[in-house]
Amino acid sequence: MAEEAATSFTSAMTLEQSRVSTIPQRYVFPPSQRPESNLPVAATLPVIDLSLLHDQSLRDQTFREIQIACKEFGFFQVVNHGIDQSVMNDALETASKFFDLPNEEKMRLFSGDVHKPVRYGTSLNHTRDEVYCWRDFIKHYSHPISDWIQMWPANPTCYRKKMGKHSMAIQGLQKQLLRVIFESLGLNPEFLREEIEEGQQTLAVNCYPACPEPGLTLGIPPHSDFGSITILLQNSAGLEIKDHNNSWVPVPYVEGALIVQLGDQMEVLSNGKYKSVVHRATVNAEDKRLSIASLHGFGLETKVGPAPELVNENHPKAYKEFSFREFLDFISRNDFAKGRFLDTLKMN
């Protein structure tokens, strides 16, 4: 498989290292899908201090800020989240070392099979994508970590230790965030506690190399994530989200912050009260951008539907149930950039 793939697969890092002055036609997006230059940075994107949830005099105000952010954006950034800066820095550093490895080393983990628990690749699904995006990635299942860590990259030698420490810290933060988000929906904070404990965590470690023609391509095209929430660490700006006016808004880089994005499972669970955020990644001509997205969701076969408490005469059931396996089957058969899986679940 790796030998066959090597003839049809050129990573974005390989192109960048060969100092191409123009990008191959396969990476050029149609004009209507290209990123806009010089978008104004929104001053209103929410940044929430999580430590204030432990201050009784400020908890209600912070709680409301999270509620509004989930309704209006499906997105917020968090600071004072309890994860040490050194843990995040180490994870980004080891990610950078992985992508700097010789191509033959990374190709040992290559797979075009989206069901594989550990896989290296480029674009989104290079066997299906009509247009490639300027991105290399290593994805791996991460919870429970003891089940998966021996399959993670063994090179660089620090990868498992440093990425594992970050992964476990994020898994703890995810539980805290879900309790608050469920409570903000009027649900019991312990809602689906067992399903969360037994749920999925997938780390998508992304590399967006410097690109000679950043205005012609994207790091990732517009999409929403499948799960309940995604917690994203980035080393520089490049993420853009769609706001409620359907306009693209650049997300500013905030030192020490983590980005929280609601996914399709949360939109379905909330019966549409909260929205999964549509986002994309842009690239730039100067620097390699790294991000580590921790995607959280329920078990492979677990069916997710609207919470019964949020369905009534005024708010009838708006989505069909779905599982993570059904999502994987969808993206293995379809060009991810052409349509959202979520749209196939809407009932009316």
Can you walk me through this structure?
The chain is an alpha+beta fold and 348 residues long. It has a single domain, classed as B-lactam Antibiotic, Isopenicillin N Synthase, Chain (Jelly Rolls, Sandwich), CATH 2.60.120. It is 29% helix and 18% strand. The strands form 2 sheets. An 8-stranded mixed beta sheet has the order 1-2-10-7-12-5-4-3. It has a 4-stranded antiparallel beta sheet with strand order 6-11-8-9, with no helix packed on it. Helix 4 packs across helix 7. The protein is globular.
In short:
The chain is of the alpha+beta class and 348 residues long. Helix content is 29%, strand content 18%. The protein has a single domain (2-344), classed as Jelly Rolls, CATH 2.60.120.330.
